[in-house]
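Weekly structure sync, notes
Attendees: PL (lead), two postdocs, one rotation student
Agenda item 3: pending single-chain targets
PL asked that the sequence for the first pending target be pasted directly into the notes so everyone works from the same version. It is reproduced below exactly as submitted, 907 residues in total.
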Amino acid sequence: MKIFKKLLVAGGAASIAFTACSIVDEYDQELVDRYEQAVQDEKDSVKQAEQDRKDSIANLDSATCPETFTDTRDENVYDIVRIYDPEVDSKARCWFKQNLKYDAKDDSRCLDDDKKNCKVYGRLYLGSAIKKGVCPEGTRVSTSEDWEHLLKVVDPDENSSYILKNAEEWIAGGSASKATDKYGFSAVPGGFYDDDEEEYTEEFHNDGHWWVYSKDSFKYVRMSADDNLYEFRTIDAYNSEGIGLSVRCVLESNHSIEADTSSSEGDKSSSSEGDGEVKSSSSEGSSDTESSSSEEVDPEDVIVPQNDVSIDGVSQKGPFIKGTTVSVYELDNGRNLSPKGTAFPTEITTDDGKFKLSNLKLKSQFVYLVAEGYYRNEVTGKGSVAPITLRAVSDLTKMKTINVNLLTHLEFFRAEYLVVNKGMRVSKAKIQADKEIFKNFFIDATEFKAAEKLSVVGSSDEDAALLALSVIFQGDFTEAQLTDVINTFKDEIKDQEKGEWKNDSLKTVLADWVANAEFKDHFKSIRDNVEGWGLGKPGNFEKYLTNFWLTMYEMDPCTSASEGKITWTENKYSKNKKESKTRFVCKSGNWELATDLEKDTEGWTSGKDGQVKNGKVNTDSVYVYDGAAWRKGNVLDSTLGIGACYTKANRDLKKSATDGEWYICDMDSAKWVNTHNLNSYFAKFTPDDKLSFFNTAITDVANDTMIDPRDGHVYRTVMIKFFNAALLHDDSLVWMAENLNYEPKPTDKAYGQSWCYGDLDYNCEIAGRLYSWVGAMNMDAKYFETEVTENLESHQGICPDGWVIPHDGYLAAFEEISENGGEIKTNFTGAWKTADNSYGFSAIPSGYRSASGGTYSDAGSTFTMWTTLNEMAEAETFNVYDAKVNEAIDVSKHIGAAVRCVKLPTP
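Predicted structure, written out during the meeting:
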C-alpha cells in the first residue's frame, strides 16, 4: 500500500503544478502564489511521510527476531537487533547487537591482550577462525549480502555510518560527535590486530573493522571516527590468516515478513501475523493436539492453555534489581528442553526481583525462563558490579508463580542431559537433578518442593538450603569468577551417572571460604544483609553451611563431649590441612581456629615458674610457665642460657653464657632486653656496673596490653585523651605504647620491607622494626611511586586486625604537648634529655634507615614514625627530637621508620 500511496501523492503534486500553469492568466499573482505554496506543502508532506516511514522501520518491534541469543559454548548472551524494510526485502535480518566474544583460543585475541576490552569490544578473530565458522550454531559470520541489505535499509541515499555507531565508545570529533545509533546496531571501534607484527591498532577508539565472509571470500567493513564513511575492502585468503578483526553474527534463518501496503501501522500488525507464520511447527503441533483431544493425554505432551496466561515470580541470586530482563519461551513438550517461537520479555522495575508477564498467548504449558541482570549480593550486602544470567524451566499446569534462582539454573543443565541422553521426562529429570545438586553439598532434598518454588528469603528448610547454596557459590568471587564456578559445576555433573561432582579441589576451595566465614562470624553479616532487604527472614541456612565445610574437612560436629578438643583436617586440598599447622578447637558448640597457645600447649600440665618448652605444632615457638599458666615466650628464653624472663624475675639483670651480653628481664614487654648498643640510648651503668634501666617515673604507665595473634607478641597500650578541634568535643585514641615488631611473612606484601636497626636482631627486641612506607602500608611495590588516597583514615597496613596506621588527623592527640615533647617521650634513664612521659606514649629514639645504601642513623636522638598521608614518591612522618617535637616531614617512601598502630576508632 505504501508504494501506491507514494505514486498517488507524486501524481497529486504534478496535477496541482499543471493547474497552476493553466490558470495564471485568469487569476492574479496572489492566487498563483497560493497554489505554488500548496505544491511546496505537498512536497514537504511527501518528504515527511518518507521520513516517517524510515522512522517507523527503525522503531518496529522485534517480534520477528528473538530478543536475545545465548551462545551455549560459553553462556554469553547477545541482544538481537532486527533490520527490516519491506521495500528493500521481504525478509528481516537478525543481527547480534554486540561483537562476538567467543574465545577461539589461538585464533582470537582481546584488544591489547586485556580481557576487559573483550567485554566491551568483543574479540578480534584471525581469518583461520572465520574459515572454521566461529559464530555459534544457527548463526553465520555476516556476509556481503547482509551488509548490503543493512546499508539499503538504514541509509539508502547516503554513505554515512554515524546512525550505526554507539556514541559512547568512539573518540570525539568526526562522526563520533554525530553518532545516534538510530537503529540500535551499536557499532563499537574494536580496532584490529596484526599477527605478523604482533601489534594492535594504536588508537582503537578511532576505527572498527568487521569480517565479511562467504565461500572463502574475505572482505571487511571499516568505519572510522575521522569521517562518516563505511567502506568494503578485500583481503586475499593468505593475508587473512594474519589479521584480527571483529565479528558480527547473523541468525541463519531469515524471517519472512509479508509486506503491508497500507501504512506504518499496517507494517506493525503485519509483522505480528508474520510471527505467527514463523511458528509453523508450533501450529502443526497444536493441530495434532486438538485432533487427538478425545484420547488420553500424556502429562508430558503439550496442552494448549485455553486462556491467556499470566506468569509471575522472583529472580534471585540475591534479588535481581531494577533493569533486569526476564524472558519467557515455550517448550515443544515435556520430553525435551528446546525453546520454540519468540520470547516474551519483561523488565524488573524494582529491586526485589519481582516480575510479571500478563496475557501471554501460549501454545504449550511448558516454559523456559531466562533472567539477565544485576543482583544484590548476599555476602557483601552490595549490588553486583556485573550482570549474570540464570535460567528456569517449569510446567504451567502445576504452577503460575515461577522463581528463577541458582538451583533452577543448575537444574536446567543436568535435567537437559537426563532428558536428551537418558530419555527421562522433564518433570522427573528436574526432581532428580535437584536432589543430586543438593547432595553434592551434603543436603538431603528428598522432601523439598520444586526449585522454582524456593526463595532465598523464605523461612522454610528448603528455602534456607537454597540460600546456603547461593552463599557457597558466591563466596568472595567476582561475578566473572562466580560464572566460571557455576559453569564448571554444571559441566562437570551433567553427564555423571549420579550427578556427582568429583572436583574435590574446587569443592574444597568453596569449603575453605565457608569455614573461614564462620570463624570470622560472617554468617551473621550474611543474615543481616538478607534481612536488611526487608523481604523476609531466612531460615537456618547456617546449619547447611557448617555441615558443608565440616563434611569436606572430615570433622565431627562440636558437642559438649568434645569441648576443648583440638583437631585438624586431613583434606589434602585444603589450605587448612594438617601441614599448614592450622588447628581447630571446640568451644561452646562451635569449632573455632585454635590460637598458637591453644594448639601448642594442648594437653600440657602445670609447670614450674620459668620453665620453658617448645610448641607441639609450631616447634620453633617457645612457651614459658609464668604464675599459674603457660604463655608465649620468645627465642631468647631458650637460647641465652639464663632461663626465662617471667613475672618473679622482673628487673633481673643477667649475663648470657652464650654471647656474653647483659640482659634485663622486662615484664612490661615480657622478654629479655639486650643492653648492647643501648647504654647511651635507653639505659646507663652505675659506677659499680649495676644497670639502671627502665627507671620510669610514676607517669610512665600503660593503660593496658594487647596481644598480636599473628606472633603472640604482647604490646603495652595507652589511651590518650584530647580535645578534637575539628569536631569540637573531647576525644580519645588508644595507641600502642611500643614500636611494632611484627616481621612480615612471605605471604605479606610487606615481606622484605622491614629491618632491625643496624641489621642486629636484638635491636628489634628493644625498639621494634623499621619499615618502608610501602611495608608499613602492606601494599604492592608500585605504590613507592604512586599516590594512595582511599581509606587513609582506616588503613590496617601491617598492623594487627582492628588496628590501623595513624592518619595525620590522629596526631591531633599531641597538639597540646610542649615544644620539647617531654610528655610523649619515654623517661628511661638516658633515653632523652628532657622527658616525663605524662601521656604514656613512650616515644623511643629508635632512629631510621636511609632510603638508599641501607645505612642507619640517629638512634638515641630521633623518633620517626609513619603516617598514611602521602604523595607520589613521598609520605609524611611524625618526628620527635631531643629538643623539639611534632614536626611533620615529607620523606622518601623508601626510608625505614617505626610504626605505631592505633586501635581502629569506633564510629
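Discussion points:
- The chain has a mean pLDDT of 81.
- The first strand starts at residue 68 and ends at 71.
Action: rotation student to compare against the earlier draft before next sync.
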